[in-house]
């Protein structure tokens, strides 16, 4: 009797899982970025119209910043249930929450219609977005990394990271389109289109995510009854060192990113008179370059190790900090686009792409969702949220870009110091069922540095 070959379940495909993770992160970051763009362009005029223009803009950006406070809370909550109930369930929930929060923003009444209720609802929607992003990133990268073969973990782990520049392109192009409307139409209904359009992407993202299977590492852990009762407590007791390493590692990618993708738009307009639309187009070009350099950096990390790529990227950020502003201050559009392509397409890509796998390999399976999420989002709250404000204050204080370059250099060397403390982990087997005692499963951190 002829044997029947087993049927391969395509839902276990690393490529399919990584693609589902990328689609989800793309939707989440798209929603996140359009809120930031709307904060700069329109929110001060429709939700804070009772304030003077300057105060209204500050209030809009404060609303945008609320999410950075909510993200670590989302990381703890989603991490807890992701480590206990599964990665997939939390990813579906986070995407649904982000979609609801974003679509509701597109339906909100204005201040002129309902008074203070309008900005109050806006803040609540932003809090919901922040909670969702706090749960999204860790789960997305774990699904990609834990489904991947050992020799391609960084490559597949970089797919969710590609969602970031793709989302930036989509968000920027969408707003570039709607701002071409007559101003009255844009303020009345045009600004709502990018938010409402998010619902289409959310439905597609949910459909794709529901088609993939749970992480095999989590399934093995659950079968052996190894779930942590309170993952955040275990992180604080036994895994606080890798959590701190992860937080510090975020400085190298985050500071140049928020300078190069957010702050530089207003800086270039004020210092060189560069048209905002041209800056946004340049940002789209740089993001397009990053879509390719992110997986390229990850492939290199699978061959030579995470630390070498991460440290190489951080050294590039430090070396390019002064030349970046020299190119921007030239006022030459071609040189400015070159500066953006280098700082985002090389500096950010090399320090950001491998971060997903590097963080995942710092923690054991039973607390991996919580550990990666908390390290990433607490680090982001410190190294991302304050960047535009700090950069603005430094320029006002010094009257030049010199302290901005120093700011980027300091961030790069903070990350370099943290990465040196971690043990190289690209040859580790992270999906094996845990058998050692709790203390033996403490992080991949080199004892010679601790």
UniProtKB/TrEMBL annotation:
Superkingdom as given in the UniProt entry: Bacteria
Transmembrane intervals: 29-51, 57-78, 90-109, 166-182, 188-208, 244-268, 280-302, 309-328, 334-353, 404-422
Record-annotated Major facilitator superfamily (MFS) profile domain positions: 17-429
Membrane topology note: Multi-pass membrane protein
Key words of the record: Cell membrane, Membrane, Symport, Transmembrane, Transmembrane helix, Transport
Keyword Transmembrane helix: yes
Family affiliation: Belongs to the major facilitator superfamily. Metabolite:H+ Symporter (MHS) family (TC 2.A.1.6) family.
SUPFAM superfamilies (alphabetical): MFS general substrate transporter (SSF103473)
Stored Gene3D superfamilies: MFS general substrate transporter like domains
Species this protein is from: Cryobacterium flavum
UniProt protein name: Putative proline/betaine transporter
Function: May be a proton symporter involved in the uptake of osmolytes such as proline and glycine betaine.
Subcellular location(s) of the protein: Cell membrane
Keyword Membrane: yes
Pfam families the record matches: MFS_1 (PF07690)
One annotated Gene Ontology cellular component of this protein: plasma membrane
GO molecular function term, any single one: symporter activity
């Amino acid at each position: 009797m002829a044997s029947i070959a087993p049927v391969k379940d395509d839902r276990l495909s690393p490529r399919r899982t990584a693609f589902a993770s990328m689609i989800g992160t793309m939707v989440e970051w798209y929603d996140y970025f359009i809120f930031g763009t709307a904060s700069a362009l329109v929110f001060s005029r429709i939700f804070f119209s009772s304030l003077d223009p300057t105060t209204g803009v500050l209030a809009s950006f404060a609303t945008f910043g609320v999410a950075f406070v909510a993200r670590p809370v989302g990381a703890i909550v989603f991490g807890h249930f992701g480590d206990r109930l599964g990665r997939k369930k939390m990813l579906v929930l986070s995407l649904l929450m982000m979609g609801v929060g974003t679509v509701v923003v597109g339906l909100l009444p204005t201040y002129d219609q309902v008074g203070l209720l309008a900005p109050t609802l806006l803040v609540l929607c932003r809090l919901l977005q922040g909670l969702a992003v706090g749960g999204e990133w860790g789960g997305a990268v774990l699904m990609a990394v834990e489904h991947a073969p050992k020799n391609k973990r960084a490559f597949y782990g970089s797919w969710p990271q590609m969602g970031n520049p793709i989302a930036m392109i989509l968000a920027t192009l969408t707003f570039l389109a709607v701002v071409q409307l007559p101003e009255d139409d844009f303020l009345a209904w045009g600004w709502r289109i990018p938010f409402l359009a998010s619902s289409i992407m959310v439905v597609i993202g949910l459909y794709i995510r529901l088609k993939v299977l749970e992480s095999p590492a989590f399934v093995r852990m659950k079968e052996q009854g190894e779930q942590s009762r309170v993952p955040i407590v275990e992180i604080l007791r036994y895994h606080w060192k890798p959590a701190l390493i992860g937080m510090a590692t975020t400085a190298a990618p985050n500071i140049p990113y928020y300078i190069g993708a957010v702050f530089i738009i207003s800086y270039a307009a004020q210092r060189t008179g560069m048209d905002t639309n041209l800056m946004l187009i340049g940002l789209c070009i740089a993001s397009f370059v990053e879509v390719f350099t992110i997986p390229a950096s990850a492939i290199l990390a699978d061959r030579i190790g995470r630390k070498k790529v991460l440290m190489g990227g951080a050294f590039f950020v430090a070396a390019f900090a002064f030349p970046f502003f020299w190119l921007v201050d030239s006022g030459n559009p071609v040189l400015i686009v070159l500066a953006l392509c280098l700082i985002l397409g090389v500096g950010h890509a090399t320090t950001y792409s491998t971060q997903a796998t590097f963080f995942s390999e710092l923690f054991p399976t039973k607390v991996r969702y919580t550990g990666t999420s908390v390290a990433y989002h607490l680090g982001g709250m410190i190294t991302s949220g304050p960047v535009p404000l700090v950069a603005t204050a430094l320029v006002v204080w010094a009257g030049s870009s010199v302290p901005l370059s120093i700011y980027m250099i300091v961030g790069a060397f903070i990350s370099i110091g943290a990465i040196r403390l971690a043990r190289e982990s690209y040859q580790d087997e992270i999906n094996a069922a845990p058998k050692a005692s709790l203390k033996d499963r403490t992080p991949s951190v080199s004892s010679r540095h601790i």
